Amino acid sequence: VTHSIPACIGSMTINSKQVEKESPVSIFAVNKCYETVQDGTFFDGSGFAALVREGYKVRSDVNITLEFRTTEVHGVLLGVSSAKVDAIGLEIVHGKVLFHVNNGAGRITATYEPRGTNSLCDGKWHKLQANKSKHHISLIIDGNLVHTDNPYIQSTSADTNNPIYVGGYPADVKQNCLTSKSSFRGCLRNLLLTKGQHTELFDFSRAFDLRGVFPHSCPGAEH
User: What is the mean pLDDT of residues 55-74?
Assistant: First the structure.
């Protein structure tokens, strides 16, 4: 076994003696446990999760689905870029969700803005689906569809080769389709990327780099 157990451990005794957990000699990637816990991964607003070390190739088509819960009005959700301009990005800016795509000819953006008093930053779970099909892009939030016209119809492939960064990205990494540098604070779950018939569910505990991210431990809804 090469990865940690996603669990809470308490009241440990060795040879009838209780182990002192409050002042450990060393500690790494251990968060506090919560009275009420939901499925999901907690992002504390300071870092990111990095997936697919060898680089993820978006190319012509990708469908991204995830669920998020936050009370912050800014935060990076996901970015995949390249050394050139090709990239995709998902982010929350001023309480709106933006899906950016650059197939090489220029960035286009689908924007979802909640209506009236409805908020995406209310601490409740919201479902997001972002779809890129050649030069078409669309965004579905809680069943509401938005799409945008793309003037660059000849350019259809986002030739990315960098890792998938979720919830933020390192300061020295360029993201060509993200405008925000704010790390996401809140919980994410059920991150799925689909290409054709192949669907991949990403487990954050398998990320090759985790900073300020606590897999499988999402504190209960904030009141």
Answer: 97
